[in-house]
């Protein structure tokens, strides 16, 4: 195991099989990305209402979204990187709206598992510094996403 993942289900609707799927998929993604062992990440499952509140507060967008990541290693202006010898690397938090995941699975005509996996990987890559604001960045991030999902067995049919 590369990652230590702390799961929180604020919806009380996420089954053990879905948590296990996300756990295995993120371990796979960490392996593909050569993440050092004992790296920590948290995954929280929330409702559309909860993610809308977070989206409004942190991104200024008053609408639900599917996934939000808070990278703890992302440096703000004027901040310096601080590392503690012997302490595990903490990547940050991935927050997934299970409501949006269900809606999008239906919209894209694939399984809830595929959508949940996609959102987990998407959020994880954001924690690693990948982005999709510019076309070139998007190409790199989406290719990495597809590679991870395909090699795990959750690619597009």
Q: Can you summarize the main beta sheet?
A: 4 strands, mixed
Instruction: Give the C-alpha Rg.
Output: 15 Å
H and E order? EHEHEEHHH
In round numbers, the mean pLDDT is 92
First-to-last CA distance: 28 Å
Q: Assign the structural class, choosing from mainly alpha, mainly beta, alpha/beta, alpha+beta, or little secondary structure.
A: alpha/beta
The tally of structural domains comes to 1
List the defining traits of the structure above.
4 strands; 157 residues; 46% helix; alpha/beta; 5 helices; globular; Collagenase (Catalytic Domain)
Summarize the structure in words.
The chain has helices at 16-32, 48-59, 98-107, 112-127, 135-152; strands spanning 3-9, 39-46, 67-71, 90-97. It has 157 residues and is of the alpha/beta class. It has a single domain (3-71, 88-151), classed as 3-Layer(aba) Sandwich (Collagenase (Catalytic Domain)), CATH 3.40.390.30. It has a four-stranded mixed beta sheet. α1 links the parallel β1 (3-9) and β2 (39-46). α1 crosses α4, α3 (98-107) packs across α4 (112-127) and α4 crosses α5 (135-152).
Task: Write a concise synopsis of the structure shown.
This protein is of the alpha/beta class and 157 residues long.
């Amino acid at each position: 195991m590369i990652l230590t993942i702390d799961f929180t289900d604020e919806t009380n609707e996420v089954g053990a099989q879905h948590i296990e799927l996300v756990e295995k998929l993120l371990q796979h993604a960490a392996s593909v990305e050569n993440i050092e062992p004992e790296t920590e990440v948290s995954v929280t499952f929330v409702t559309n209402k909860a993610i809308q509140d977070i989206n409004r507060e942190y991104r200024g967008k008053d609408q639900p979204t599917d996934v939000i990541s808070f990278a703890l290693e992302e440096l703000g202006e004027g901040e310096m990187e601080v590392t503690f010898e012997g302490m595990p690397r903490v990547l940050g938090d991935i927050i997934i709206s299970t409501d949006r995941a269900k809606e999008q699975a239906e919209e894209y005509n694939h399984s809830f598992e595929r959508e949940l996996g996609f959102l987990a990987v998407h959020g994880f890559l954001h924690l690693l510094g990948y982005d999709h604001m510019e076309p070139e960045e998007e190409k790199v991030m989406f290719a990495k996403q597809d590679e991870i999902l395909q090699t795990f067995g959750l690619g597009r049919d």
